[in-house]
Specification:
The protein has a single domain, classed as TIM Barrel (Alpha-Beta Barrel). Helix content is about 40%, strand content about 30%. It has 11 helices and 12 strands. Strands 1-4-5-6-7-10-11-12 form an 8-stranded parallel β-barrel, surrounded by 8 helices. Helix 1 packs parallel to helix 3, helix 7 packs parallel to helix 8 and helix 9 runs parallel beside helix 11. It is globular and about 40 Å long.
């Protein structure tokens, strides 16, 4: 089980939004690269980075910051937020990003999903964000009328190997992760799933670890680390301990 500490970038700073709302922002660090170093020193093996400016307007708006994170932390990072072209995917992979996340493109531009799966099968991740089971698009501003499991099955048919699933109602709320919905998605699609949104204590991490057999491969933790609700070192020790026990 991989724990992905999250860095959300907006205007070059490390921030967190509540339920994805841009008017509910907390700045946690002026330099995201510094935060990446802290995560790396705590023992993180992978970092989840979201370009919030890109998510809102499309295209990478924070490439310089992403370069600094890569240079500073030396551990693999995945990047998402407004990636809507093969050109941006290639640009990020060329910089040294390990995994690239497509979100709204999974619905808006399925040709792009097919193409990226063909050329970069192991580096592609699809982000599925849902509210009450309905997939939400474009920074969560729009509904899609699509069921999240149906979309996941479609992505599996295209060759997608990794999905990040966010239950929007829980994101940034520290209200507990939606383990049932996440495990169901992994089971029914047959794709490895990373849980995101609402992880607020080690009990949540344990619940997800109990569903590893369903296909949950990790979880993204953002706000809980920044507020101190979760000690990243303790969370990493928990999953490492379980790995050694097997």
């Amino acid at each position: 089980m991989i724990i992905f500490p999250a860095i959300d970038i907006r205007g070059g700073k490390c921030v967190r939004l509540t339920e994805g709302r841009f008017d509910q922002e907390t700045v946690f660090a002026d330099d995201p690269a510094e935060m990446a170093v802290r995560f790396s020193e705590a023992g993180a093996e992978f970092i989840h980075v979201v370009d919030l400016d890109g998510a809102r307007s499309g295209g990478e708006r924070n490439l310089a910051t992403i370069k600094r994170i890569l240079a500073a932390s030396k551990i693999p990072i995945e990047v998402g937020g407004g990636i809507r072209s093969m050109e941006t995917v290639s640009q990020l992979l060329d910089l040294g990003v390990s995994r690239v996340i497509l979100g709204s493109a999974a619905v808006d531009d399925q040709e792009l999903v097919r193409e990226t799966c063909k050329y970069f099968p192991h580096q592609m991740v699809i982000g599925i964000d849902a509210r009450n089971g309905e997939v939400a698009l474009h920074g969560w501003g729009d509904g899609s009328g699509l069921n999240y499991i149906e979309l996941a099955k479609q992505m599996a048919a295209f060759g997608v190997r990794h999905i990040i699933f966010t239950d929007i109602g829980r994101d940034g709320m520290l209200s507990g992760v939606n383990v049932e919905a996440t495990a169901k998605l992994a089971r029914e699609s047959g794709v490895k799933v990373v849980a995101s949104g609402g992880v607020h204590d080690l009990a949540d991490v344990k619940k997800l670890m109990a569903c590893e057999a369903d296909g949950i491969e990790g979880c993204i933790i953002g706000k809980a680390i920044y507020t101190g609700a979760i000690d990243l070192k303790a969370a990493l020790a928990l999953v490492k301990g379980a790995a050694h026990a097997h």
